Amino acid sequence: MNETAILERAPPRRRDAAATRAAILEAAQAQFAEAGYDRAALRDIAAVAGADVALIKRYFGGKEGLFTEALKASIRPDRMPEWDRATFPHDVATMMAGAPHEGRSHAFQFLLRAATSPTTAPLLNLAVQERFLGPIREWLGGEAAQPRARVLAATYIGFLVERLIRGEPLQGREREVFIERVAAVFELLIAD
Amino acid sequence: MNETAILERAPPRRRDAAATRAAILEAAQAQFAEAGYDRAALRDIAAVAGADVALIKRYFGGKEGLFTEALKASIRPDRMPEWDRATFPHDVATMMAGAPHEGRSHAFQFLLRAATSPTTAPLLNLAVQERFLGPIREWLGGEAAQPRARVLAATYIGFLVERLIRGEPLQGREREVFIERVAAVFELLIAD
DNA sequence: CACCTAAGTCAACGACAATTGACATCCGGC
DNA sequence: GCCGGATGTCAATTGTCGTTGACTTAGGTG
């Protein structure tokens, strides 16, 4: 057929359900992040994954199922229990003053897309409840942990969005004031 | 057709291109804000505007044209100076505890939805500058207004996103605590 | 080696929505 | 009062996409 090797996949992948599933999932995350739920076509996802459309139905039940799976795979409760309450506010503030991390911003973009599409918002809500709000609630503890976790999560998200939009790190006095203020906010939020 | 009854839609709007155009544009903003680009159907927009689908093509060229036109119409400075510093924190907190579609916050929700599209993403940055950072900076005044405006805007957006994800209003004790906490945050943010 | 199940392929269906052009109707000026 | 362009209506077309079921093939097992 072709003397020159196919670029994408040198070994066309032996029959391996797990590997195919993983490939589809990865392709789905990328496509959903780039195009959003509605515009991402299952045919494209399958093509990128080097698989057939019908396999998506088999492994994930359908588009919604695939999306939900991709969502769960994208929300990793970033080792929250390890966070130190004493330094947390300042650490977060410093992080938010910087530039968006290249690798992770893709995942976040995916989540942001999911949040802004009415179709996927309910799905995201479930995923966030389970994998984000839950851990934060545990970590916060104390009285009325649920609404307090909500407020903390919302604020956190807001700064992530701001950093994403801003694109570049803050500098000079603006940076100082920013960090100071943001730290004060989180200080307030983790208090009983 | 019928001589007796002329009461089918008494004054629906006389033939008036400008008026229909405006009606379509307004309906488009609402629909795009609520449903997002992909799920907003031109038929629905036309129906809400009391017009025919074909007129959208005539006046805006197509869905894309209508969208960009509606987007441009949504980017305009808010009237923030009217806000009362005394009640602002509690008012905002109450608004955020509600459902995404209560009140008249169509415009920014529209922008938030649109922001996820690669072509329109830069517009969000512009919109945030125009609609938020500028006015908020003026409104805040005082020392280091710029970074303080940033923090305020970021927090504000975070709660908007949270409300979008949540989808429904908070209730009971959770709502109370939420409002109380959010108000406290904004109280802190508008302080010198 | 034969067989059976899991893995993968293929083509077609049906729904939905944007687009399009042909047609009907209004209304202001001659 | 009538004519012509502007305004509004309608139905058909087209294209995309998720879904579906029947089919083919690989590959481990007895």
* Main interface: chain pair and counts: A-B, 46 and 46 residues
What is the number of E strands of chain A?
A: 0
Number of helical elements of chain A: 9
Termini separation of chain A comes to: 69 Å
Oligomerization state:
homodimer
Q: Give the ordered list of helices and strands of chain A.
A: HHHHHHHHH
The main sheet of chain A comes to: none
Radius of gyration of chain A: 20 Å
Structural class of chain A: mainly alpha
Low-confidence stretches of chain A: 1-10
Q: Which percent range describes the beta-strand content of chain A?
A: under 5%
Shape of chain A: elongated
Helix content of chain A: over 70%
What is the mean predicted local confidence, pLDDT of chain A? 89
State the main characteristics.
mainly alpha; DNA-binding; elongated; disordered N terminus; homodimer; 192 residues
Q: Mind explaining what this structure looks like?
A:
2 copies of one chain form a homodimer. With 192 residues, chain A is mainly α. Chain A contains 9 helices and no strands. In chain A, helix 3 (53-60) crosses helix 4 (63-74) and helix 5 (88-97) runs antiparallel to helix 9. Chain A is elongated. Chain A starts with 16 loop residues before the first helix and ends with a helix. The structure holds a DNA duplex (30 and 30 nucleotides).
